[in-house]
Amino acid sequence: MELDCWGLSMVMWNRVCKGLRLWFLRLRFGISPKCVSGFGFDLVRGAKILELIKAGFPSDKYLFAGVVVGRKIWANDLAASIDTLQSLEGIVGKVVSNSCSLLHTAVDLVNETKLDKELKSRLAFAAQKVVEVNALAKALFGQKDKAFFSENAAAHASRKSSPRVTNEAVQKAATALKGSDHRRATNVSVRLEAQQKKLKLPVLPTTTIGSFPQTIELRKVRR
After folding, report:
1. DSSP states of the chain as a string?
2. What is the pLDDT of residue 61?
3. Cβ atoms < 10 Å from Cβ of 73
4. Does the pLDDT value for residue 172 go beyond 90?
5. Fewer CB within 10 A of the terminal residue: the chain, N end or C end?
6. What is the mean pLDDT of the segment spanning 53-78?
7. 153-177: b or e for each residue (b if 16 or more CB lie within 10 Å)?
């Protein structure tokens, strides 16, 4: 198996390499490590990876099918996830999983007490994503929670028609954009001159992320 990736983790049991979780990558199957029992892939963004898996996944390995989005706070489209899982029915050792680490999301939606019901129905933090994984796994083996899937479908349907998401004015403005709208009217030298005239930056200006203290005293020091 050839890999080109910058997101990879190993799952260790009894000090023996047993599983590989891979995301942000491209690959093709060939000779795979004997000590690895399974591979985990992001099947949400990895359309090409899905094609490769269907074309020939190692019969002696487990597939950790990452169908629950791990990068976003939005609830998963369970119907779409089931379709993806069912398209892999030829693979015996299939395990339902999240697409990547859940560190990209908040911990638990239960702590969000000030959100309205409509918006909250469309969200899923780490704890909710674990529930989604569990629900998909059960559905795949004939124990589908019809009420849970129905609520999920309703939430996705309402989102598509919601004025919070579909703004006709924005759509018209986006449609009216021309190629010239994506290019600045002045070249970079003119903009740099204007920037320096206004900001008077040093040779190597530095900044910090927003979580650092932004006091007046600190700003003076940084300048």
Report:
1. -EEEEEEEEEEEETTEEEEEEEEEEEEE-SS--TT--EEEEETTT-HHHHHHHHHH--TTSEEEEEEE-SS-SBPP-HHHHHHHHHTTTT-SSEEEEESS-GGGS-S-GGG--SS-HHHHTTB--HHHHHHHHHHHHHHHTT---HHHHHHHHHHHHHHHH-TTT--HHHHHHHHT--GGGGS-SS-HHHHHHHHHHHH---SS-----TTS---HHHHHHH-
2. 81
3. 16
4. yes
5. C
6. 87
7. eebbeebeeeeeeeeeeeeeeeeee
| Distances, alpha carbon 88 to alpha carbons 52, 54, 62, 78, 210, in Å | 11, 7, 12, 16, 44
Sheet with strand 16-28: strands edge to edge:
2-13, 16-28, 38-42, 62-68, 94-98
Q: Which of 19-33, 82-96, 176-190 has the lowest mean pLDDT?
A: 19-33
Mean pLDDT, rounded, for 195-205 = 88
Q: Please list, in sequence order, all residues whose beta carbon lies within 8 angstroms of the beta carbon of residue 220, skipping any fewer than 6 positions away.
A: none
Residue 28 vs residue 142, higher pLDDT: 142
Q: Name which of 157, 133, 28 is nearest 85 in CA terms.
A: 133
For residues 147-152, give the mean pLDDT: 96
Question: Cα(98)–Cα(65) distance, rounded to whole angstroms?
Answer: 7
Between vectors from CA 160 to CA 115 and to CA 168, what angle results, nearest 5°? 100
Task: Name the percent of the chain lying above pLDDT 90.
Answer: 37
pLDDT at 116 over 70: yes
